[in-house]
Structure formats: structure tokens, C-alpha cells
Amino acid sequence: MAQNQEINKELVIQAQIKTIVNTVLENCKKESECNSLLIPLEDYEHRVSYYTGLPKEELFKLLENKPTGNSDQSYDLVQRIIIMQTLLKFYKTLKLPNFQDLYAKVKVVFPTGDIVQFRRALTSMGFDYRKTINGMMIAEDPKLTFERYHYLKKIKKVRSSNVGIYYLEERYIDKKFAFNKPDFVNDPLHGKNDANHIWEGFYLYHVLSDSGLDHHFITNKISKEVHNKWVIDNLLKLIKPGCAIVIDNHPLHGELVDDTVTQYHSKADMLNWLRKKSIPCSENMCKAELYDLISRCNKPTKTYDFDQLLKIHGHEVLRLPTRCNALSPTHLFWVEISKRMPFFKKNSAECTLVELEDAIIPTINETHKGIWEHIKQKVIYSEQVLEKLYTETEEALEYCDPFDVKNIDQHAKIPEYFYLLDGYC
């Protein structure tokens, strides 16, 4: 059996090598045909990614040199806005921006060390070279752009309707008091159920709103089962139906469930699908007739199981845009909490779970009274700036060198969502 496993492993490696070699050969052939380099020489990391077909994130992992970024992929919102504003100025002058040009403009407010780290940070934020008809220029991943646009529209509508907004999230508290988002895969299960055990770290599940810390749960376990039990047994009983719940894309907040209906589904499934979409149908119709209705509007649909749970109880769910967790007031709120725990930072080695909870909950409540409204207004202002930037950037790009939409799928092996560019430029 061991020998068979080694043979299978070798076959897999050979297949991977063959795929990479074929990709390199294909891309070199394209450059030969057009008699020019498709990727600038100075952007060597991008060239490796392009020729091998390996996404940059995978490339960084292989090199054990991951791109710059926070543990929860929530980059400084001010930095993101400055990058977008600077790119907009380039677009308005019809200049195709590169990393050197951009770095020269923003390095004072974006201290990453050097241009290589700067490029990696921007790649992690979703900014990278995009191929145009006559060259290359830096632009944001349109999937991120569109996702953020839809979130901004939704949260704006929710705010104008004056419904309650609740921010549901989790923090991992360790001896460094960084209050980071929990690492669902790599975090060890710290501590014990014994309240007198010397504290090492724990998880704080909680929900914040304008009224304060509405509910919290401290545990040494990070799992969907524990999290969902807390939500069902406590949170959903606390929050009245009709409210909006804002969450990020942490693995604790569910998995995508494919809701697509095929010819193999039962007649009952087809009827339920059509009725959910408010499409007129009848039980007297056969499966062939029902599927004909479905196929006319059947786009692949995926929803989060956790979202469905919240919606069943009458709540609207707003997911923070990818890599934009800082659009939640809780992001700055926890930065402030960390500053207000100096005593426990000095004495954390002797602190028990009970002592820490007794200290942190009053600190959260006091901090909320003092700065929550101020932080919320800062977030609202950022939302308005981002919404305006979207409109101005879309208009400016209409006059820029068009993206090479025919070769989008060949650029840096960026996934299928790039078809969105057809509607963006």
C-alpha cells in the first residue's frame, strides 16, 4: 500500500510539472507571436506567476514569503482610499499607472519599507496589473469593486430606514492583547474549562450595536457548532425581527451552499425553487415543463447557510466586502479597546479567565459610551467617500485605454469572475 501511495504521489507531481511546463511554453509562444513582453521585466514576481500559471498568493506560500497584510485581511481603510484616489488621478490624465509611479505618490502615507513590499501589499489588497489593448496598468480587482459597491448601497439603504444594525463578530484574546480575528484553521484550543486555570487565550463571541455590547460569550473553543449554538440559543432570542446583522466572511459565518436546480432534482424541488423566485407555476405541470421555466432564469446560485439561518428569523444579512472589514465600526473599536488595557498587558501571565472577563467587559462598555458614535460617523464618512470614488473611477476608466477583454482569462490566471470587466469598462 505504501508503495502504491508513493507511485500515485509521483504521478500527481509529474502531472503538475507537465501542467506548469505547458503553461510556460504556451505563454512564451504568445510573446514570440506578438514579438514583445506581455509582462514588464521589472515585475519579476508577476512574470513568474504569469508564466507558471500559479496565482501570486500560491507563489508567496511556496517561497514562504507571504504578502503583507493583517491577520483578518482588513487593511487600513484610509490607505485603501488614498490608493484609489491616486489611481483616479492617473486615470483622469489618461496615464497607465505602474507600481513605480504609484509608490512615488503614496510612499509617505504607505510606509511598507520598499517598492517590493509595497507591491505585495497592494496585490493582497486586490490591486494589480491588468492588461489593456496597448499595455498594462494597475487597477483594482473588479470582483472586489463590485462587491464593495453593492454592500455600500445596502448599508446606505439600511441606515436610511432607521432599523437596528447589529455587528456580529469574534475576537481571539491572547497575551499580546492584539484582539485579532480568530484563525479558524491554525489557532490551538487554549485554556481549560477550569476558571482558575492560568490564562493563555480565549475566544470572545459578541454582538455590538448603538446600544452597546448586546451579548457576549467567552469560550476556549472555536467551532461552528459552538458558535451557531450561541447564536440560536441567545442572539436570535435577543434581536427583534426586522433588524440588519452585519458579518464578515470568517469561516465561522457559514459555507456557500449551491442552490442551483438541475434536471435531476425532484418535481417538489423544482416547484419550491420556482415559488421562491415568485415565478408562476402549477403542480399540474410536468418536470420537463417546470425545468423549462427554471432554465430561462437559472443562473448558478449560491447562498451561505448561516445567512439562511438569520434570514429565517426575519433579519437582513449584510456581509462586509472582501478585504474591507474596516468598514465595520468594530474594527477601530477593538483597536481602542487594546489601548485601554494597560494593567492587564503588564500582568497577563498571572491573569485568570474570570479576572480577564471581569476586566474586559466593563472596558468594552465604557469604551462604547465614549467613542462608538465617533467611530460610526468615521465609517459612514468612509462609505460616502468610497461610493463617490466608485462613480468617478468608473467614469474615468471609460476614457482610458480599454482592458483587453479577449485575453482577461490569460492574465495572471485570475479566476472566472473577470467576466465582470465587460460591464465595468
TrEMBL record:
<dbReference type="InterPro" id="IPR036397">
    <property type="entry name" value="RNaseH_sf"/>
</dbReference>
<protein>
    <recommendedName>
        <fullName>Tc1-like transposase DDE domain-containing protein</fullName>
    </recommendedName>
</protein>
